[in-house]
Fold these 3 entries.
Entry 1:
Amino acid sequence: MLGNSVRGLRWAIAAIVLLVVATVVVAVRGADMATQVGVDPYRPITEAADPGVAFAAAKRQNQPIAVTSMFTPTRKVSAQPRTP
């Protein structure tokens, strides 16, 4: 009876080790593919519908971002980056 529990424990440990190795291989290959494709950390934008998103983008990119949800036929609104 003790032999069966030891054998089961060995199988469980082997399965866990195999799962961890497979996860590491997939993660490493995925990271390699992302660098090969040339993924940018962010894509610069010039306009946003949400004022909060526009302000955050203006701050991050250090340039004005148009807030399209606040446009009228005679007025255009943009979020300005803060100057220190």
Note: The longest strand covers residues 65-67.
Entry 2:
Amino acid sequence: MTLWTFLDSCLDRLPGWPSERQWVTIGAFALAALLLGMAAHNPALWEVEVFKVIIQAVTLTGLLNMIFAFHFAANKGDEDKTRNTAAAFAAITATANAGGGDAPNLVPEPGAAAQEEGRA
């Protein structure tokens, strides 16, 4: 067994990449931690009003509530529906692109229905 096959087998045992919702949570905590870390590293930032407004908006108020509501209130099934819809559109596009010239025209010409009614 080489080092690369060993590492590959170790990676197969990991749980995988976080989902979209988990990335949102990680990003929100990282943003709050970054701002608080900046404030701890450079205390002079507490004198800047814009920084105080930004850090309060991110850490204390509901500025990010719309993002959190979308990601946490939605069903897990919504992601599957979106994925299924994307697969359906990809299949329709592939079928349309692969169609030959001998396919029947299913879209009637304007006035064709009136001509057919006149013959009956």
Note: The chain has a mean pLDDT of 74.
Entry 3:
Amino acid sequence: MSKFTSFLVGAVLGAAAGFAAGSLLVDNDQLDDIKKKIKDNEKLQDLKKKYDNGTEIVKNQLASFPKSVEDDSELKDFDDIVIDDSNNDDDDEEKAADDLNNAEKDDDTASDEGAPEE
């Protein structure tokens, strides 16, 4: 026999043996008796109520978190925003241009302080 055939036969026989043993181990009357004892046990019922309340609280907390943002086009368009500050005097234009030139310098051109970037 090949290894696969041996494995297949062993799996089928093992499953059949497990099913037979499981059905013979516990009688239905015993199962009903155990279920009744669990239902009548106050400590277990109290623990079950506490568990259910705790899981409900966690569900509510998780539901209160904001949903993930699917459409982030507003965030991507943030770079395109131009602030129009036309109320300022024209005297500050030179200062603003210098500030922009300094802000837009790359790290490799930072050593060229007097040369404007083109």
Note: Helices lie at 3-25, 28-40, 42-63, 73-76, 93-103.
